[in-house]
Amino acid sequence: MSMRTRLASLLLAGIFLGAGFLWSTNRGPSPDGNAAPESPAPAASPTSEPSPSRTIAARPPSPSSTPSPSPTPPPAAPPREEALEHAALRAALEDLLVDPGTGPDSVLGVVVLDASGATVLDAGGDEPLLPASTQKLVTAAGALAQLGPEHRFTTTAEAAGSIDADGTLAGDLILVGGGDPVLASPVFAAQVEPNRPHTPLAALADRIVAAGVRRVTGRVVGDATVFAEEHMPAGWDPGYLSSLNGVRTAGLTVDAGRSLGVRDGRVTASPSDKPALQAAVQLQILLVERGVAIDGGAGTGAASGTTTELGRIDSPPLRDLLAHLVKTSDNQLADGIFRSVGAAGGDPTWTGSAAAIRDTLAPLRLDWSGTMVADGSGLSREDRLSAGFLARLDLEMSRSELANEWERLMAVSGEPGTLRRRLVGTVAEGRVRGKTGTLRDVRSIAAAVTGPEDARYHFAVVGNRLTGDGPTAVRSLQDEIALLLVEDLYGCVRVEVPATGSAAEPPSPPPVELQCAA
Question: Which of 39, 153, 370, 425 is disulfide-compatible with 315, CB 3.0–4.6 A?
């Protein structure tokens, strides 16, 4: 029986779970199609002052959760022994891997952990693989721990000269970037991505006018020096830019790194070759609209000498940016925030950002063997993470002091986000939260399934070198694993429905019902 056929036979027409309630329902076909697929691939911000490093403490105990050991002193290494009480579940999971249909050259990593951290299943879980957008979980965890959920990115306007009584600034107006990845022009915020968090650049123009500026004899200068001038990481294909799957990352960026235009009455977007200059140009336009004369146009450079602050704007809190990043798999947000972690750690390069994240997450005692973090988005073909690493990252973040912040970032099955079309109409709808990853030859997921009284499993499935029907098969495998885990948490039993009617041959596979005691 194929993976897709088995999965289709398990879809539910409805769900009702109550304590001690025995129920059953028939299943219908599963909706097909991927929810908000991430970037296809070719073959194989900090504030102006660095923030102090943070540490991740254990999650405070609650009546419905198991207390975690304190990380000071550090806890012992996570248990790797198999959970003997999960023998039946492990056997069912292993059965799914007998013939997954992922193709002869495919490589799979599958790991399931219980809430204590014990291993329920490990099949290739130590193999470093291309993670695709599950890489964003590393970025999100590092940013939460290093910067904090309340962190806001600050962009300032500074006068490099005196302002006379008539409002003339004798010198340049400096737009100093603080790594804000959601700085936006009015057109972008209203017409291009209205549902994306944004920091209105127009508000800074208003503050400059309110400070009395009516003319600038110099230029509007974009200062992006909060990041090192490395716009693209190792392992990116130039095609990412033309397709807008990736953009150049800079310490001063507006409109998600895109240059806007108008064609046939419609707003168009193309990758910005010079993000800092693009931001300076946008501020110049906004100031001219408000009656401010700019004699020297726009340019880029670093603020030097004595300057006077004219105004500042702050981004929405980091927790809101990360929620959008994870739920929608926003590549530009991920890479911008990734670089901000490096800047906060004192090394605003791509490699420095990777090192800062690893240092920040050290209290989680993760096994980084074989891992490679080249960017924040997962677009790089040099990224490598194992399924075991991803599952344990989710587990450890879920029982840390940042657990509530972490869990609210995730997409949820059947809800808006990259899981909105996954497991709809099944017992797992609304009970799987996590992050998917998609490249042309990669399918991945790292997620948790939740049950009664905070019972849960954490799992990761990563497939590489997928061709033909391989991507679809891995997606089906991910869904079947999630279903089995939810069924186990709720004590569900699959029962065949007796054949009815006068059909010459019984249906294959036979219809089944779930009977669950929550």
Answer: 153
How far is 242 from 302, CA to CA, in rounded Å?
29
Task: Fill in the DSSP letter of residue 84.
Answer: G
On whether residue 216 sits in a domain, the answer given is yes
- Measure the CA–CA gap between 27 and 12, rounded to whole angstroms: 4
- Beta strand 107-114 with 119-123 is antiparallel
Same-domain status, 421 and 293: no
CA–CA separation, 150 and 172 (whole Å): 32
Q: Is 49 domain-assigned?
A: no
- The reply to whether 327 and 390 lie within a common domain is yes
Phi/psi at 61 (5° precision): -65, 150
How many Cβ atoms from other residues are within 10 Å of residue 327's Cβ? 21
Asked which of 298, 316, 334 is the last residue of a domain, the reply is 316
Q: Using one digit for the tens of pLDDT, what is the confidence trace for 123-182?
A: 999 999 999 999 999 999 999 999 999 999 999 999 999 999 999 999 999 999 999 999
* pLDDT value of residue 63: 38
Does 63 reside within a domain? no
Taking CA atoms, 324 is separated from 37, 181, 196, 353, 355, in Å, by 15, 12, 7, 21, 24
Three-class secondary structure assignment of 455-515: CEEEEEEEEECCCCCHHHHHHHHHHHHHHHHHHHHCCEEEEECCCCCCCCCCCCCCCEEEE
On the question of pLDDT at 16 being above 60, the answer is no
- Residues 418, 476, single domain; the answer is yes
Q: Are 350 and 335 in contact (CB under 8 A)?
A: no
pLDDT on residue 50: 37
Burial class of residue 510 in the structure, from the number of CB atoms within 10 Å of its CB (0-12 exposed, 13-18 middle, 19+ buried): exposed
Between residues 248 and 19, which one has the greater pLDDT? 248
Task: Choose between 476 and 54: higher pLDDT.
Answer: 476
Same domain, 143 and 162: no
Angular region, 192: left φ>0, alpha ψ -120 to 50, beta rest: alpha
State residue 337 phi and psi, 5-degree precision. Answer: -70, -35
Strand, helix or coil at 306?
Answer: coil
Is residue 55 domain-resident? no
Asked whether residue 404 falls in the same domain as residue 370, the answer is yes
Q: Which domain holds residue 205?
A: 154-316
CA distance 444 to 130: 9
